[in-house]
Each structure stands twice: as C-alpha cells, then as structure tokens.
Design brief:
Oligomer: single chain
Largest sheet: 8 strands, antiparallel
CATH class: Mainly Beta
Distance between the termini: 49 Å
Structural class: mainly beta
Number of strands: 16
Number of domains: 1
Strand content: over 45%
CATH architecture: Sandwich
CATH topology: Hypothetical Protein Tm1070, Chain: A
Shape: elongated
C-alpha cells in the first residue's frame, strides 16, 4: 500500500488531536502540571510525538539524578592520537504502567564544564517510551571523561529509568562500539 503525504498528515493530525484531548485531562487529574495544554513535539529522527510540560505533577515525588559516562573520543596507538566517536544517550521508561518525567539533560566535558543543555521544559515519557540525544562525532570538546547528567522524577514504587550511552565510530577499516550504564548519584 502506498502511503501518500495526505494520509500521513491525516494520521499525524489524528495523533495531535488525540494528545490535545489526553494531556488537558491529565493536567486536570494532577497527573502532570501544566498551565496550558502541551502539544506533542515530533522527534525528527523517528517522528514520534513527545509531550513537554512546565513541571511534573505532584505525584512525581521521587526525584533522582543520574550520571552517564560518555567517551566522545578515546586514545589509541601511542596515546597521542584520538579516535572520535558518535554518542547516543538513550533514556528508556521501562515501566509498562507509569509515566516518567525527565526534568534535565545536560552534557559536560572532562573538566566538568557544562557544554550543552538539551531540555528547556519537562519531558514526559509514557510507559515503554524512550528518547535519544546525540553527540556527533565532530564534537571535540567533551573528551574521554565527558558525561551526561540526567534528572528525573517518578512515582514512588515505579521502575527507575534505564539510561545508557552508546559510543560508535569508524576509521578506515577499524570500527568500534561499546556502551556505558548510568549510575544513580542521589536525589535531585
């Protein structure tokens, strides 16, 4: 079946209209806190709608901070050469029932200086939803000791998020890929 742009726009429009009904209801029930209904925002990588709000609802009372190690480059050969890598930060809501509020995603270099803030409002991840943030191979300021700090809020008793960084790069015929797990550093 050939999907035309009109059909695709109709499907996307239906999704947006559905969110226009669900999010205000969630606000009224205290599930999320918002002064105006949130519009879904589409990720350009896979066209998935995400919901952003001003602040998480009161029931998201468990706040946590995670440290995710990043290797935007690694040393090779004699240690004087660097192998630059593309980094994907993956944040996954592993709960089949509860939503998760991501309140901050910040990228730091080896010296601990903040290089980039990825969120300017709260991202609500629905059950089993995930999001990725990319550090391109061309980024050379992070270094071998770079990291992401991720703040989230969740309902007490719900599953913590799964947060990983995936590093991948190629040079000539050499390819390398590996992942790192985030660690909980404490309450927000």
């Amino acid at each position: 079946m050939k999907i035309t742009s009109a059909i695709l726009n109709s499907l996307v429009g239906s999704t947006v209209n559905l969110y226009r009904m669900i999010v205000p209801a969630a606000c009224c029930l205290g599930m999320v806190s918002c002064s105006t209904p949130a519009e879904p925002v589409f990720n350009p990588h896979h066209n998935s709608p995400y919901v952003y709000v001003e602040k998480p609802g009161a029931h998201f009372s468990l706040t946590e901070k995670y440290y995710a190690p990043v290797y935007s480059d690694i040393y090779h050969q004699d240690g004087a050469h660097r192998f630059y890598l593309t980094v994907t930060l993956s944040i996954r809501n592993v709960s089949m029932r509860d939503t998760l509020a991501i309140t901050a995603v910040d990228y730091y270099n080896t010296e601990g200086l903040k290089l980039k803030t990825y969120l300017d409002s709260v991202l609500i991840l629905r059950p089993l939803e995930s999001i990725e943030y990319i550090v391109p191979e061309s980024e050379s300021q992070g270094g071998a000791g770079a990291n992401f700090m991720v703040d989230c809020s969740r309902i007490p008793g719900s599953h913590p998020p799964l947060i990983q960084t995936v590093m991948i790069g190629t040079f000539g015929q050499q390819g390398i890929s590996f992942l790192s797990e985030a660690v909980l550093t404490g309450p927000n």
